Amino acid sequence: MIHWITLFAVEEVAKEGGLFDLDATLPLMAIQFLLLALILNAIFYKPLGKAIDERNEYIRNNQLEAQERLTKAEKLAQQYEQELAGARRQAQTAIADAQAQAQKIAAEKVAQAQKEAQAQREQAAQEIEQQKQQAFASLEQEVDALSRQILEKLLGADLVKS
């Protein structure tokens, strides 16, 4: 019996409508479509949209944090470079001061060594002069003794004593 009713309804529709029949099925299909869209939106699209929004927010936050860290790292690197440049300048200044002080000490030691050498040279010259004077004095005595001996031999012993 149900089979006959369905067959009758199909024949009735085929006779009346054609391809597009604007009876109560069109609004019913529109309502079904809207209900399906609302159900899909509530079940699938809102949670999916929420997950996508959360992911976008997470990515945006990570990017902002990464930019902040990068900025901070660049500032630290710049600060460390400035500190390093200052330390290098201080080291160069310390090296220059140490070299100047070393040169000053070396010059003082050289001057002191020259003074000592000059003093030793003068002392040696004095000693040589004293030895020379002593040698001349002893030579004079020997010359006097020899000249007396020569005179005694030449003139005789009696004349030299007078």
UniProtKB/TrEMBL annotation:
InterPro entries: ATP_synth_b, ATP_synth_B-like_membr_sf, ATP_synth_b/b'su_bac/chlpt, ATP_synthase_B_chain. It is a single-pass membrane protein. Pfam families: ATP-synt_B. The keyword Glycoprotein does not apply. The chain crosses the membrane at residues 24-45. GO terms for cellular component: endomembrane system; plasma membrane-derived thylakoid membrane; proton-transporting ATP synthase complex. Signal peptide: none annotated. Keywords: ATP synthesis, CF(0), Coiled coil, Hydrogen ion transport, Ion transport, Membrane, Thylakoid, Transmembrane, Transmembrane helix, Transport. Its main location: membrane. Residues 63-149 form a coiled coil. One of its GO terms (molecular function) is proton-transporting ATP synthase activity, rotational mechanism. It is found in: Cellular thylakoid membrane; Endomembrane system. The keyword Mitochondrion does not apply. Component of the F(0) channel, it forms part of the peripheral stalk, linking F(1) to F(0). The b'-subunit is a diverged and duplicated form of b found in plants and photosynthetic bacteria. F-type ATPases have 2 components, F(1) - the catalytic core - and F(0) - the membrane proton channel. F(1) has five subunits: alpha(3), beta(3), gamma(1), delta(1), epsilon(1). F(0) has four main subunits: a(1), b(1), b'(1) and c(10-14). The alpha and beta chains form an alternating ring which encloses part of the gamma chain. F(1) is attached to F(0) by a central stalk formed by the gamma and epsilon chains, while a peripheral stalk is formed by the delta, b and b' chains. Belongs to the ATPase B chain family. NCBIfam families: PRK07353.1 (NF005607). This is ATP synthase subunit b'. It comes from Iningainema tapete BLCC-T55.
